[in-house]
């Protein structure tokens, strides 16, 4: 596996996003299946595993910790705080964005326990809590570095301006945001800001939440708890329009000699050397397919044709609902 810089570390050019082993796309797979995916990734040379306190309300960190603890010296571990489950008086856990220093410290301690590790290699602020100055949240995270509980810091779904404010408090080693052919917002400012500051850009949902795959989701069969149910791009009218992009896209994949998912990942790897995609999957077969994208070569002409086909003008619908868009700090087209 090719290597790329991830903050102060060298890791595989493609990491593993662990979220959908426990969260987000309907009923998660059995724990044994998640275990097989994690161990197969490790055996295939993946050395960056990405999780968060939010995923499965702690279940994903628990799974990652249990399965990968015996191999802790073979990979770099990233997790996130500042957005986690809080149980109300009714006993029901709910997602809460809380960037106060005391919440970040509590989230980190909980994550360390679930992950069964003494230190998290890179700790992200999962969302900037706009009620709390970013300097205060990052200041609390820098205390975790000084305490030896975290090695490096990152931010998720932030603008270039917020990144620069945070970086003045403590070096930001990585920024994680959705980025794929059909979500191009990072190209407005954050990609360049990361390059300027020496931060790695980590691209989540790099195959467009399954849209740029052979196994195209049928939106009429999405489970009630599948987060795509609330995403405008997957609403029936927008989705029908977006489907028109797929035949010419698949033709380009065939021309490039790879699968559609591999083409999406190879595009990201060719965009800039400081980008690391972290596709997620519940299938060992799809995992191997994704990792083979590191060997796909794309010409400048192919890059241009891909970007002309799928971009912010040709994709129908926003990536998030109005509520979700209000919770992120990214620049939007």
Secondary-structure map:
Elements: E1 3-6, E2 9-12, E3 16-17, H1 31-43, E4 48-50, H2 59-68, E5 76-81, E6 83-87, E7 93-97, H3 101-115, E8 120-125, H4 134-146, E9 150-156, H5 160-169, E10 172-178, H6 190-197, E11 200-204, H7 236-242, H8 246-256, H9 260-271, E12 275-277, H10 284-291, H11 300-309, H12 322-327
Parallel strand pairs: 3-4, 4-5, 5-8, 8-9, 9-10, 10-11, 11-12
Antiparallel strand pairs: 1-2, 6-7
Task: Briefly say what this structure is.
The chain is an alpha/beta fold and 333 residues long. The chain contains 12 helices and 12 strands.
Descriptors:
globular, EC 1.1.1.-, 333 residues, eight-stranded parallel sheet, two-stranded antiparallel ribbon, TIM Barrel, 12 strands, alpha/beta
Describe the structure in your own words:
Residues 13-310 form the NADP-dependent oxidoreductase domain. Keywords: Oxidoreductase. It holds the Pfam family Aldo_ket_red. Its EC number is 1.1.1.-. InterPro entries: Aldo-Keto_reductase (IPR050791), NAD(P)_OxRdtase_dom_sf (IPR036812), NADP_OxRdtase_dom (IPR023210). The chain is built from twelve helices and twelve strands. The chain is of the alpha/beta class and 333 residues long. The chain has a single domain (3-327), classed as TIM Barrel (Alpha-Beta Barrel). The strands form three sheets. The chain has an eight-stranded parallel β-sheet with strand order 3-4-5-8-9-10-11-12. The protein has a two-stranded antiparallel ribbon with strand order 1-2. Helix 1 links the parallel strand 3 (16-17) and strand 4. The longest helix is centred in the N-terminal third of the chain and has 15 residues, at 101-115. The model has no long low-confidence stretch (mean pLDDT 97).
